[in-house]
Amino acid sequence: MVASALSFSLMSLCVKKVGAHIPAAEVVLARSVVSVALSWWLLKRAGVTPWGTRKGLLIGRGVLGSGALLCVYSALASLPLASATVFQYLYPTFTALLAWLGLGEKLGKRVLVAMAVGWLGVLLVAQPAALFGGALTLPSGAVAIAIAGAVLTSLAYVSVRSLAHSEHPLVVIFYFPLVALPLSLPLVWLHPVLPTGQDWLWLGGVGLFTQIGQVYLTRGLMALPAARATAISYSQVLFAGLWGWFVFGESINSWTLAGAGLVLAATWISLSSPKPAGDR
């Protein structure tokens, strides 16, 4: 899950690089083309039949993931990298609740503590005006889109957890871009923008790092209860803050550093917690 978080933070960096002039749907399309090709190659190499058994749920996971990608990529284009990632990390709470309601996964005490510590860290990084003073400068529409992306992400992650009992991880990974590709085509057709120069490199990076992140994410979600796995992935907030500061010159203050420390603490608590009986 930590390797997945690092890969997705690099994906976000690439999206941010092209998001100012390439529409989100076109970035999703580029990502899907690369991921379909890589997934097909991995499936053939592993000798795994690509079509799976629970096709309805596999397609549903792809639809949810596609919607989440569109929201996340749109938010990344409009918000600072760290802020967009922070809003995306509202999803572990939604995931834990949905896994409890839909999958019957019990929430161990340490997982609950990790979620609470991670949520506090996210709050410190976000520094909402209502608590920290100052005027709200983030566009409300972009914030709403980012939160919608978090909800869709949580639904997609719970569906992955449900698929763990019947599907090979590579099949689950394959269906995501396979569904996202045709869904994004009509949106691209409405507003096509031809990439130029380094845009092609960044778009390739989106596909590559997303594929790597998906491989580790799917394996993590299939090996761990959804709540525990997503609590570990809070570490992406730290990575996003570092990329935002180093590449885009986004400021990092003491509250952000404190929040990053809490996010790391949440990850450590999740990693060090023994599996409760309900998590086996």
Task: Throw out a few tags for this protein.
78% helix; 13 helices; single chain
- Biggest sheet details: none
Determine the strand fraction and express it as a percent band.
under 5%
- Along the chain, the helix and strand elements come as HHHHHHHHHHHHH
Gross geometry? globular
Low-confidence parts: 276-280
Q: How many domains, as an integer? A: 1
Strand elements, count: 0
Mean pLDDT: 85
Radius of gyration based on Cα positions: 18 Å
Question: So how many helices?
Answer: 13
- Class by SSE composition: mainly alpha
Helix content: over 70%
Instruction: State the distance separating the first and last CA atoms.
Output: 18 Å
Write the layout of secondary structure elements.
Blueprint (H helix, E strand, L loop, with lengths): L1 H17 L5 H23 L8 H24 L2 H8 L2 H13 L5 H18 L2 H4 L7 H24 L5 H22 L8 H25 L2 H7 L2 H14 L5 H19 L8
Helix pairs in contact: 1-10, 1-12, 2-3, 2-9, 2-10, 3-4, 3-8, 3-9, 4-6, 4-12, 5-8, 5-11, 6-11, 6-13, 9-10, 11-13, 12-13
Give an overview of the whole structure.
The protein has helices at residues 2-18, 24-46, 55-78, 81-88, 91-103, 109-126, 129-132, 140-163, 169-190, 199-223, 226-232, 235-248, 254-272. The chain is mainly α and 280 residues long. It has one domain. It contains 13 helices and no strands. Helices cover 78% and strands 0% of the residues.
